[in-house]
């Protein structure tokens, strides 16, 4: 990767244009209505629109040629790392390969040219996509139906919690305003609950990393709207008491919400509906192979079981039908998987994670040694190289050093249960050779740390920029050019 | 070993209090600023707001963390250290000089529940 | 073993990996899952398809849709898409990256988000923009929450019923569950009071009329509330900006910046605000800094507002944004520049006024809002049967005359030609009065 230091504004040259538009004079409108009779210009607007409605300040956008634009953004792209660049073991993010047929389908003009308010008889194909995807996701998860309005996982969580509230409100059970969240939960869970007007009650994990049923029992009561869980949890461990938890929560009148962020290991193997979950969201951009796009667009459809089904269409959390383009991609992926390949997806993802875990546990601290699901957590290096007068290598240092060797870093410092957490998720689309290369590099980094942690402290050395000054960025924010 | 000043009172949530008549001057301890690392922003209440003992009145922010500030006393905010708006690093540099708010106390008896320097020293390590 | 192109494992690979993992077979990896929960049935899915079968499958579905000449807006505008954009946004370095957590290898994403933020600020005239929102309607809802968080002890917001229906629906949904009171009103200033935190108004109403917001900011500020303007960013090339009207927050949908209508998404919302509210804005923000050697670089910043740090006290639960669509708009604005974007508006405006005049001439319509200024979207009062009108237009390949509040609405973008407009008008002329 090469450092490239331009912003598009710095390429601007007055009078240069990158657009191609038809001539202005094809309508008689401006010619007739403008006093000048000339082609449309700002004077034209001033004649047809009241002056006090017009922009008074100049619009300072770049003036660049099409070549400038193509080169600038190509150069920017070359400072980026994607799944197509290399292995991306980012825990909790399921960075699996994004198949190219998905892109071809999503860019088909017979779909991209549809207006969202077109009459039903003109969008039968689009409706079949939505219905077909709904049916497939229901089959995979054991839920009844999905709404596709949410545009992301967090958006799905919010929508799902709204459904939880609708369910209780419709039963006149308005006092249920608390939602239980495990201490290992994704930060979005409590944030979504708060935005939905719910109060958070945290339930502790036991030493085995699982929700402690005895700690849960006293929290249950007539004020509990439900519990939000991800299973496997953020440590990559299957919550094996889920049957008992579901029974207890339902008995107290609450609902179970499934955070689908960690659905990948269950793909083709276990269905959240069968575990007793009433509401769930999926991240199509994780489990169903649609690209993350540098942070969206994603899609976070919400599925419900029988109890919540009557309320599915109540929350309107986005403007039209959700991110249809993303739905097309996910549906294409599911059709490629089919009933045959789907059964292998979860198991192969789990296999990769356990293979890495067992290959590195002599170099990195493994706090919970049991079989993991799609991901697992190390708690830093076993030998961080710390000695008299020299600080040891941290998880951050390991992550940065990985960049030097051409890998994306795992998720770090999450979950919060461990101070030096390194969370690794390989996915089912990585070959044994890729995993072996990663393992070799992780071992090499551990050896470097033991020998001289300063090699890691200074990393990365081979990237377009070194470590940034984030404190300065936050103290004196420069947020625009 | 973080610094603790003898003449001040402390809360278990690491705020210090200097009593000046009916006014409580409030900041955070050296231990607290060390735990936070480089402070990038101090979120403070407005003058005239009321604060309640044990409830949050603002927050310290660093790049990767946010920590609530809990009021050691109840009363009305009579002054806010505006210098911190542009220079949050003052708390890192001189935690006992960089006060955050001054509160006119509504119940001076609340001070009795706070910790002495010696007692706080047992917590802050 | 699988013969499936997305799973690279051979039988041998699986054996080697199972051995290392210390389990006998793949089922052994699920030994911690109670047997009741292992799905034993056949998944109710189609048989696996080959790539060509998938292609044919969607081709067939696509053919069940009808491609129409779009003369309707209402939140989705059929503007021209420059060829450069999909070419750039499909580069896998952009497309297949995650949120830019590791900034050393994400400078591409971080830079274009910084450019997007800069362009949104320049369009709106405001000081701070975030990295984008899900869509316009949800951005409006978040802005109202932001107003409540930015004012003290105020828990009521006023929302103009002149906004498009989907904005109203989403706002109503978002504010129903937390304890925020929402008043929907045609005349928002009438409802102002000491408990109001924010007022949301459109810059162009649902009927297409450009709003004169003279006096709004003064009245709203005098009541101690924030003024939020919902606007079309494309139109801001020519219309008075939110900053010029005195708004505190601007929101809207960036779909008009060259994004395909794509049956409603993906689009991108935007939100921008005055400096005073920088720390209350939801979502990701990119800031400029330097690296260890002094090189200019870009990072995610002001993260202490966000859900992964603040958890239940975060300004919003939003994590990601619509990053790739923000890139889409950024490339679009780079190509258009100030001149191109103005020209887009001129062509749309001229076409819309031409259609408006021609439709009136047919005698099949009356003016709905005589003398009121509009840009590319307008309403007319039909004098013919609406169902017949819509069907005739549909039969001729036009999506137009959507019914709205007893009127019919039309929209013309620069993509529509004079020939298309003339053809549409010819269809209307054939309808019996």
How many helices of chain B does DSSP assign? Answer: 4
Task: Classify the oligomer.
Answer: heterotrimer
What is the total tally of β strands of chain B? Answer: 9
Number of helices of chain A: 15
The CA-CA distance between the termini of chain A, in Å, is 24 Å
H and E string of chain A: HHHHHHEHEHEHEHEEEHEHEEHHH
Which bin fits the share of residues in helices of chain B? Answer: 10-25%
Instruction: Give the chain pair forming the largest contact, with residue counts.
Output: A-C, 206 and 207 residues
Mass-distribution shape of chain A: globular
Gyration radius of chain A, to the nearest Å? Answer: 26 Å
Radius of gyration of chain B: 13 Å
Tell me the domain tally of chain A: 3
**CATH architectural label of the largest domain in chain A:** 3-Layer(aba) Sandwich
Largest sheet geometry of chain A? 7 strands, mixed
- Percent of residues of chain A in helical segments? 25-40%
Description:
The complex is a heterotrimer of chains A (481), B (125) and C (433). Chain A has 481 residues and is an alpha/beta fold. Chain A has three domains: 3-78, no CATH class; 100-338, Type I PLP-dependent aspartate aminotransferase-like (Major domain) (Aspartate Aminotransferase, domain 2), CATH 3.40.640; 347-475, Aspartate Aminotransferase, domain 1 (Alpha-Beta Complex). Helices cover 35% and strands 9% of the residues of chain A. Chain A contains 15 helices and ten strands. Chain A has helices at 29-33, 42-48, 66-77, 100-106, 109-112, 124-141, 153-170, 188-195, 213-216, 242-251, 324-360, 395-404, 432-451, 454-457, 470-475, and strands spanning 145-147, 178-182, 199-203, 224-229, 255-260, 279-282, 302-304, 376-379, 411-412, 421-424. In chain A, strands 1-7-6-5-4-2-3 form a seven-stranded mixed β-sheet, with helices on both faces. In chain A, strand 2, helix 8 (188-195) and strand 3 (199-203) form a beta-alpha-beta unit. In chain A, helix 4 runs antiparallel to helix 11 (324-360) and helix 7 (153-170) crosses helix 8. Chain B has 125 residues and is α+β, with helices and mostly antiparallel strands. Chain B has four helices and nine strands. Chain B is globular, with a radius of gyration of 13 Å. Chain C has 433 residues and is of the alpha/beta class. Helix content of chain C is 36%, strand content 15%. Chain C is built from 13 helices and 15 strands. The longest helix of chain C is centred in the C-terminal third of the chain and has 39 residues, at 323-361. Chain C is globular, with a radius of gyration of 26 Å. The mean pLDDT of chain C is 96. The chains are: A alpha/beta (481), B alpha+beta (125), C alpha/beta (433).
């Amino acid at each position: 990767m090469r450092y490239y230091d331009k912003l598009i504004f710095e390429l601007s040259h007055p009078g240069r244009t990158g657009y191609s538009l038809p001539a202005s004079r094809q309508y008689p409108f401006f010619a007739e209505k403008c006093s000048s009779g000339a082609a449309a210009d700002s004077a034209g607007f001033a004649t047809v629109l009241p002056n006090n409605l017009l922009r008074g300040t100049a619009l300072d956008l770049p003036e660049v040629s099409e070549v400038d634009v193509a080169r600038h953004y190509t150069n920017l792209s070359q400072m980026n790392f994607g799944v197509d660049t290399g292995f991306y073991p980012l825990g909790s993010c399921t960075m699996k390969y994004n198949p190219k047929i998905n892109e071809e389908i999503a860019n088909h003009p017979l779909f991209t040219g549809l207006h969202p308010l077109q009459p039903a008889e003109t969008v039968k194909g689009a409706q079949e996509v939505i219905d077909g995807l709904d049916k497939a996701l229901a089959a995979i998860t054991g839920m009844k139906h999905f709404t596709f309005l949410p545009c992301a996982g967090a958006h799905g969580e919010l929508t799902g919690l709204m459904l939880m509230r609708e369910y209780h409100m419709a039963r006149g059970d308005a006092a249920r305003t608390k939602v239980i969240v495990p201490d290992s939960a994704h930060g979005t869970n409590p944030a979504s609950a708060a935005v939905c007007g719910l109060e958070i009650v945290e339930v502790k994990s036991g030493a085995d990393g699982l929700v402690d049923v005895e700690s849960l029992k006293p929290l249950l009561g007539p004020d509990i709207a439900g519990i939000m869980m991800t299973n496997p949890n953020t440590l990559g461990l299957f919550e094996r008491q889920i049957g008992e938890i579901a029974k207890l929560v339902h008995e107290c009148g609450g609902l179970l919400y499934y955070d689908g962020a960690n659905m990948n290991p269950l793909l083709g193997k276990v269905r959240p509906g069968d575990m007793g979950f009433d509401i769930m969201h999926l991240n199509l951009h994780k489990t169903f192979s649609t690209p993350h796009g540098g942070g969206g667009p994603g899609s976070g459809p919400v599925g419900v079981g029988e109890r919540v089904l009557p309320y599915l269409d109540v929350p309107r959390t986005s403007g039209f039908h959700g991110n249809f383009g993303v739905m097309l991609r996910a549906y294409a992926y599911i059709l490629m998987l089919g009933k045959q390949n789907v059964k292998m997806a979860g198991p192969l993802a789990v296999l990769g994670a356990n293979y890495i875990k067992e290959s590195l546990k002599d170099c990195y601290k493994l706090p919970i040694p049991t079989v993991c699901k799609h991901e697992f957590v190390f708690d830093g290096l076993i030998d961080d190289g710390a000695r008299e007068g020299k600080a040891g290598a941290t998880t951050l240092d390991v992550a940065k050093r990985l960049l030097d060797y051409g890998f994306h870093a795992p998720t770090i410092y999450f979950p919060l249960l461990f101070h030096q957490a390194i969370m690794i998720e390989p996915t089912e689309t990585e070959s044994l050779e890729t995993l072996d290369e990663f393992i070799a590099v992780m071992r090499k980094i551990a050896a470097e740390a033991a020998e001289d942690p300063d090699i890691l402290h200074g990393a990365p050395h081979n990237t377009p920029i070194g470590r940034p000054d984030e404190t300065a960025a936050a103290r004196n924010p420069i947020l625009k050019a | 070993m973080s610094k603790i000043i003898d003449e001040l009172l402390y809360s278990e949530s690491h705020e210090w209090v200097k009593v000046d008549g009916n006014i409580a001057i409030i900041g955070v301890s050296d231990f607290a600023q060390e735990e936070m690392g480089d402070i990038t922003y101090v979120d403070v209440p407005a003058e005239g707001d009321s604060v309640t003992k044990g409830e949050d009145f603002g927050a310290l922010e660093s790049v990767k963390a946010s920590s609530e500030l809990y009021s050691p006393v109840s009363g009305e905010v009579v002054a806010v250290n505006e210098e911190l708006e542009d220079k949050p690093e003052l708390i890192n540099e001189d935690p006992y000089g960089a006060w955050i708010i001054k509160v006119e106390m509504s119940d001076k008896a609340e001070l009795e529940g706070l910790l002495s320097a010696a007692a706080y020293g047992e917590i802050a390590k | 073993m699988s013969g499936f192109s997305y799973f690279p494992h051979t039988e041998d690979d699986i054996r080697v990996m199972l051995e290392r993992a210390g389990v006998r077979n793949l089922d052994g990896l699920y030994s911690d899952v109670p047997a009741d929960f292992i799905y034993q049935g056949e998944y109710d899915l189609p048989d696996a398809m080959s790539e060509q079968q998938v292609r044919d499958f969607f081709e067939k579905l696509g053919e069940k849709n009808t491609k129409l000449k779009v003369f309707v807006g209402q939140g989705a505008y059929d503007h021209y898409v420059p060829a450069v954009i999909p070419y750039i946004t499909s580069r896998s370095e952009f497309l297949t990256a995650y949120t830019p957590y590791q900034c050393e290898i994400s400078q591409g994403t971080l830079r274009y988000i910084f450019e997007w933020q800069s362009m949104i600020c320049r369009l709106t005239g405001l000081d701070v923009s975030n990295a984008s929102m899900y869509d316009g309607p949800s951005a409006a809802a978040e802005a109202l929450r932001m107003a409540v968080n930015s004012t003290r002890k105020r828990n009521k917001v006023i929302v103009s019923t002149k906004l498009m229906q989907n904005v109203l629906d989403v706002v109503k949904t978002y504010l129903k569950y937390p304890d925020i009171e929402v008043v929907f009103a045609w005349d928002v200033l009438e409802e102002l009071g000491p408990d109001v935190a924010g007022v949301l108004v459109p810059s162009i109403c649902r009927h297409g009329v450009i709003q004169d917001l003279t006096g709004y900011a003064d009245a709203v500020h005098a009541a101690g509330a924030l003024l939020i303007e919902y606007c079309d960013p494309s139109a801001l090339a020519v219309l008075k900006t939110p900053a010029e009207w005195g708004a505190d927050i601007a929101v809207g949908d960036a779909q008009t910046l060259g994004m395909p209508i794509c049956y409603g998404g993906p689009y991108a919302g935007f939100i921008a605000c005055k400096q005073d509210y920088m720390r209350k804005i939801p979502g990701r923000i990119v800031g400029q800094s330097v690296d260890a050697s002094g090189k200019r670089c870009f990072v995610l910043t002001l993260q202490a507002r966000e859900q992964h740090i603040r958890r239940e006290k975060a300004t919003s639960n939003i994590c990601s944004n619509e990053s790739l669509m923000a890139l889409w708009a950024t490339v679009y604005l780079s190509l258009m520049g100030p001149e191109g974007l103005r020209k887009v508006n001129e062509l749309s405006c001229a076409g819309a006024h031409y259609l408006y005049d021609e439709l009136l001439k047919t005698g099949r319509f009356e003016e709905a809002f005589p003398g009121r200024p509009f840009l590319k979207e307008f309403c007319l009062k039909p004098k013919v049967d609406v169902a017949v009108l819509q069907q005739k237009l549909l039969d001729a390949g036009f999506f137009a005359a959507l019914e709205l509040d007893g009127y019919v609405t039309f929209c013309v973008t620069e993509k529509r030609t004079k020939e298309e407009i003339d053809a549409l008008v010819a269809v209307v002329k054939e309808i019996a009065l």
